[in-house]
Design a protein that fits this description.
Layout lengths: L5 H12 L9 H10 L5 H11 L5 H6 L2 H8 L5 H16 L5 H4 L4 H9 L6 H11 L9 H10 L6 H11 L4 H17 L22
Bound molecules: iron/sulfur cluster (SF4).
Amino acid sequence: MPMLNASKLYSLLLTTYGEPRWWSDDPYTVMFQAVLVQNTAWENVEKTSASIGENLNPETIYALSQEELERLIKPCGFFKAKARTIRALTEWYGRYNCSREKTESKTMNELREELLSIKGIGEETADVILVYAFYRPSFIVDAYTRRFLRRFGYSFQNDEEIRKFFTSLLSADAKDYGYFHWLLLDHGKTYCRKKPLCSFCPLIRLCKQKED
Ligand code: SF4
């Protein structure tokens, strides 16, 4: 059976799981959580964000000392490095008056370069921020995506090839990219885990590496 192209794969996931939720409509919440979630469970990020409540905004977070911020985000691990990254990211956002509209003066690639120049922001985090915070179509490739594609039967040499596979067939739309990422994440957490639950997987008929 020929492999599904990116559009068909997207339709399949959408039909299977339905329209996913969006990360957050608040750009700063996305940025803050995108750093926190590195190497920790999403539940820790949610708990920490809930404990910060209305104070999760650039002005309040930037007014905290490094130590205060570290204490606040400690449950998410790597808190010293993450606190430094959050401060640098907040400072960067401040250059745009903490306004999504102001970032529109820059191209997506310019914003991506700026984000990548911040210590602690790698490609995945930068793309998450571009898509969910600034509505820019920069396809996100993460460990769940790589694992699923490999098991499903696709063969790519590197992330660039993966990105081309998705972007050559999907129109450059941040909403679709955001949804696609979330669907793959959901699938990877629910069924295509490290130890996959193939017998329960809704995509098993099409998968090349299903368990016997
Ligand atoms: S059948 Fe198994 S390996 Fe294939 S996508 Fe589903 S969970 Fe992953």
